[in-house]
Amino acid sequence: MYITDFSLNLPQNILFGKNSFKKLPALIPKYGKNVLILTGKKSFFQTIHWRNKLKNQLEKGNIQFIHQTVSGEPTVSDIDQKVIELDKTPIDLVISIGGGSVMDTGKAVSAMLKEKKSIIHFLEGVGDREPSGDKVPHIAIPTTAGTGSEVTKNAVISQVGEQGFKKSLRHDHYIPDIAIIDPELYLNCPLSIAASCGMDMFSQLLESYLSIKGNYFTDNLAENAIRLIVDAFIPSITTHADQVEYKSKMAYATMISGITLANAGLGSIHGIAGIMGGFFLIPHGVICGTLLGEVNSAMIDILLDKRDDPVTLQKYLAIGKLFSQNSEDEKEILSNLLKVFENWLKVLDMPRFSQYGLTEDDLKKVAEKSSNKNNPIQFSNDELFQLLKKRL
Fold first, then answer.
1. How far apart are CA 62 and CA 182, in angstroms?
2. How far is it, in rounded angstroms, from Cα 39 to Cα 70?
3. Which CATH code for domain 14-186?
4. How does pLDDT run across 212-243, given as a tens digit for each residue?
5. Helices (DSSP H) in the chain: which residue ranges?
6. 0.90 surpassed by pTM
7. For 191-389, which CATH class?
8. Is residue 304 scored above 70 in pLDDT?
């Protein structure tokens, strides 16, 4: 077997495992005494155990900190406002503790504190400047198994509305200086959030595994992460949501999904999700989750019909066999895989687009603007619309 050339962009420093959060206070003095802590509104700092533990440790170390909350996916105005509020305040380190939105906010704020201009100037596709890469040091601490933002170099920023968008602030230097991944922090995640985050994570793993820009390194990472969570995915969100063993598998798989998406890219599901999230206030993970079955079903039908992409078909079979270990029949393996996705939608109660007030006209607008990214199947805009309509 010949391994083709590839290049990688990897995180700098990862602390993974139970009790790794306890190492945070000892890491802070390296950067200074003035810290900005970003959290979600209803997560970490409302959990008295974690809040008091961190506060006491910071006070012992004579660390001065400002606490700000993040509500929803970060917007241009959110980031600009935070930077304005902090303009005269010395910040030596940004610590983001939360889901993907909190960590993306951490990346954006740490960068814009140095740029001193609105973030819109630096966003891909809409800005007029390249980011310098200069930033305030940043430690990212995820509390949901979803985006993998703790190990990626981009922050996704939204401006929702008729002319809305979701675009990335991106630079190699924006990868967090340290990612602390402690599965215990995932235990308090509400079921609905854990469900949408989990579906986002799985779609990231699968899309990066199937990506035309994937390579030997990312393929192996993605496949092994999926193998790890085959039996843990649904229990970690439902019946075993209070067990660290299950959360640790999801935390690891999420971290890997961040690494693989950063190096192999994503596919049609995320090509749709980025557009839809700019137009409408729908959680990113819900979009990815509700489309998982339909998009992959359409891809498998095309692969079986045309037989012109044996590599992608074999990848689907490799993943399908993880869920159908006793079967050797190609069609049965793939059918069972799609049944797994269908069952996930039911068990996790993934909403349809109509539950957010979307209409067929809205879906047409989304389909017209969507892309296939690095998907091995290039759907037409009409085909994307038909897929979206099935989840209306």
1. 24
2. 6
3. 3.40.50.1970
4. 999 999 999 999 999 999 999 999 999 999 99
5. 24-27, 48-60, 76-85, 100-115, 191-210, 216-229, 233-237, 244-264, 268-279, 284-306, 310-323, 330-347, 360-369, 381-389
6. yes
7. mainly alpha
8. yes
